[in-house]
Amino acid sequence: MTAASTPASSPAPGSSSTPGSSPVPAPHAVLGAGPAGTSLARELASRGHDVRLVDRQGKGPAIDGVTRFTADVSTVDGARAAVAGAAVVHHCVNVGYHLQVEVMPLIQKAVLAASEEAGARLVVLDTLYPYGETHGAVMTEDTPWRATTHKGVMRAELDALYLAAHAEGRVRVVLGRSADFFGPGVLNSTLGGAVFPAALTGGEVPGFGDIDLPHSYTYIRDVARGLATLAEHPDGDGRVWHLPTAPALTTRQILGMIEERTGRPLDVTVMSEPRPFGPFDDVFMAEYAEMFYQHTEGQTVDSSAIREAYGLAPTPLADALDETLAWYRGFLAAR
Questions:
Q1: Where is there biased composition of kind Low complexity (predicted)?
Q2: pTM above 0.85?
C-alpha cells in the first residue's frame, strides 16, 4: 500500500517551467513525478534516454537527461501536451486515496487517447489490487483477478481496458505490477515515512495487521529498473508483468533487519485494525479499510517471469534496506 498526495491545483495544461513554451522533444514521457516516476526518470536517463518528467507542478531538483514539464493529464488536452513527440509513455500517476475511484479512470481515458493519437507505446505502473484476496496463495501473473473492493474492482476494470486497447491494435500497452513500495524517496507507504524515521530516532513504528505473515515489498529502484526494461522490450507488450520483487519475508523479520542496522530496538505498535497513524490520516485510513485484507493474509509476489525473460533479479533485501536507511538519514539531517 502506498498513500498518494491529493493533486495540487494545476496551471494551464501544457505549460512548462517557462509558461507557454512547448515541451522539449523526448522519446520517453514519464507521467507522475512521485517516487516511482522520479526513480524511473533517473533510471531511463542513466540508460541514455532523453526523458520528460510530467506532473502538475513541473518543479523539483534537476536530473541529468531529464526535462520537467507541467501538465494535468486527467484532461485530454493536458495529456496530449504531456506526451507530444514521445515514443514511449510511462503512466506512473497516482492520486489521493479518497479520489482514486473517481479520478484514475479519467486519467486513463485521457492518457490512452493521447498515447493513441501520438502513436506511442504505453507502459503502466500497476498494483496488486485486481487480484483481490488470495488467502495467502503466491501471486503470479496467472493469478485470477477476483477483486471485490471498490478500488480493486476499479483497478481491474482499468487493466482490462488497457489490455483491450492493445488487443484491438489501438495502443501498444504493457503493465508492470508492484507490491508495496519502499526505498529512497518513498514516504507514504506502510514501509516508509512512518517506519524509517522512527527506527532511526527511537519513535513508534507501526506494524500493519499480522506482522508474522509473509509480505512482499518492492524496492523502488527495482520498480524503475523493471519499467525501464519493459519500455526497452516491446516483445513483452500486451500483458501483465510482476516487477522484480525480493522473496517475501514476514514484516516482523524485515523490522528485525532494520533494527539490526540501526543498532537500537524498535518500538513496534501492531495495528490489528486500520486507524490513523503518522502520515496516514483519518481520511486515508477510512478509505484504506477495505484494502486492509492485504495485512491479514499472506501477500507473496512471484516475479520470476521478468527475471527469466530479461534477467532482472530483485535487489537483495539487505542491500535495499541499507540504501533506504542511508537515504532517510540524509533526509532527516536535511530537515
A1: 1-23
A2: yes
Mean pLDDT of the 293-318 span: 98
Residue 8 lies in a domain: no
Give the model confidence (pLDDT) of 244-284 as tens digits: 999 999 999 999 999 999 999 999 999 999 999 888 899 99
Residue type, 86: A
Q: What residue numbers bound the domain in which 268 lies?
A: 182-216+248-300+316-334
Query: Could you give the angle at which helices 100-118 and 76-83 cross, rounded to 10 degrees?
Result: 50
68 within domain boundaries: yes
Using pLDDT thresholds of 50, 70 and 90, give the confidence band for residue 299. very high
Count of CA atoms in the C-beta half-sphere (13 A) of 151: 24
Same domain, 198 and 328: yes
Distance CA(122)–CA(175), nearest Å, equals: 8
**Dist CA 195 CA 324 (whole Å):** 11
Model confidence over 203-216: pLDDT tens digits?
999 999 999 999 99
66-70 sheet: strands from edge to edge: 66-70, 51-55, 28-31, 88-91, 121-126, 173-177, 240-242
All cell numbers assigned to 186: 518513498
Q: In whole angstroms, how large is the CA radius of gyration of the chain?
A: 19
Is the model's pLDDT at 225 over the cut of 50? yes
Q: How confident is the model at residue 22 (pLDDT cuts 50, 70, 90)?
A: low
DSSP per residue, 110-177: HHHHHHHHHT-EEEEEE-SGGG---TTPPB-TTS-----SHHHHHHHHHHHHHHHHHHTTSS-EEEEE
Give residue 24's pLDDT.
52
Overall number of domains in the chain: 2
Dihedral class, residue 153 (left if φ above 0, else alpha if ψ from -120 to 50, else beta): alpha
Angstrom distance (rounded) from CA 299 to CA 248: 8
Q: Please provide the DSSP assignment of 6-40 as one string.
A: PPPP--STT-BSSTTPPPPP-SEEEE--SHHHHHH
